[in-house]
Amino acid sequence: MTSQTNSSEHEPKLKVAYILKMFPRLSETFILNEILELERQNVGVDVFSLMPPGDGRFHGSLSELKLTIDFILREKPESYWDKLSKFSPGVVPHMDRWQNAANFLKEHSIPKDLDMLLRALFIGAKAKEKGIQHLHAHFATVSTRMAALVNILYDIPFSFTCHAKDIFRETVNRNLFRDLVDRSAFAITVSDFNRDYIIEKTPGVDATKIHRLYNGINLDFFEVPDDRSPLKASPIKLISVGRLVPKKGFDVLLKAIRILADEGLDLELNIIGDGDEQEKLQNMAHNLELDGHINFLGALAIEEVRRVCAESSMMALACVPDADGNMDALPTVLLEALALDLPAVSTTLTGCPEILGDGSGQLVEPGSAQAMADGIKTLHARILSEDWKIGTGRARSENLFDLSKNVATLRGHFESSTKNNAQ
Length: 423
What we know:
- With 423 residues, the chain is α/β, with parallel strands linked by helices.
- The protein folds into 2 domains: 14-216 and 402-422, 3-Layer(aba) Sandwich (Rossmann fold); 229-400, Rossmann fold (3-Layer(aba) Sandwich).
- Helix content is 42%, strand content 15%.
- The protein has helices at residues 29-40, 77-85, 95-107, 113-130, 142-154, 165-168, 174-183, 192-201, 250-262, 278-287, 302-310, 332-339, 352-355, 369-385, 392-400, 403-422; strands at 14-20, 43-49, 68-71, 134-138, 158-162, 186-189, 210-212, 236-241, 267-272, 294-298, 314-316, 344-347, 361-364.
- The strands form 2 sheets. It has a 7-stranded parallel beta sheet with strand order 3-2-1-4-5-6-7, sandwiched between helices. It has a 6-stranded parallel beta sheet with strand order 10-9-8-11-12-13, with helices on both faces.
């Protein structure tokens, strides 16, 4: 149930635990990067993962982790009764707290309530034994609900980071979201757009608890390549990275490539990622007679993503709203492009303008293949004329999206939480 533990050279002053739906996960590099940087800043981190890893594909940097991963999986109730009975007397809380947790589950109609309660009891007991001072979750879904339950049962303060599907979907329970914010020490979201949206859509939410903190990028890992010749290469080498799902707008991008090919542009598009729409998109590319222009590379580890990006002329990401209201919030691949000083074209959706400011990229209206095609042409012309200046993207990345600086801010929030809890 536990992976491996490597002892730290110095005993950390702060001990936090992350509660995550699944860890590690290939598509969630921002979580891995955040935890790695916390460890580099001498924060002791443990992870409670509610599911086992999905497909066995991992980023190479996973091996750098020192932490312990506890997989707290669904089991029969009697199994957890047995586990709970083995803790030292006084660790598992009195049953009046169980009632408070059950009331929380009932009030918000949270499914699998007994399973949630038993796993929260076990996570909290393990956290107490480990000396965990603060809990953090990503996404205001099952992981944050679990953190709230542990808080109700054990008084360990918690916080959470909310991103996209947990904010924008029409099915988001706004009453539950408001309650999670109320119970938390603080809540993080990853763009100013997100914060404004949360406050507007969640009546009565405590806005003072909601902090905008950008996801950061490891600028040492994403170094600007020495060879900048790919920027003006022929054919134009486009790169797009993301799960093959509707909100990424890959269908719009394929249509834009068809428009550009018809205009005589010599270009090649590499798509990195996999997902539910892979077969549909491959068929679409074939029907658009783009077989000679499009390469579907599948999901790749971050080291390979970095290599392909460094060999590209520009990044193109055609983000669109999904049918259920879900949208990209702060696309990590645009942050990576910025750090690599790779020109990028994307849409005006959500946090994309907060990334591609200061002339570092090109923004177009979402959902329009013609607009995306025009954006690619405009950005390419800017590169050739040197209107797009080398160093612009990297400078913006260093100013706003430096992982070490942004995680230091997060660490400061954790430290304030533990001090307040000790008073």
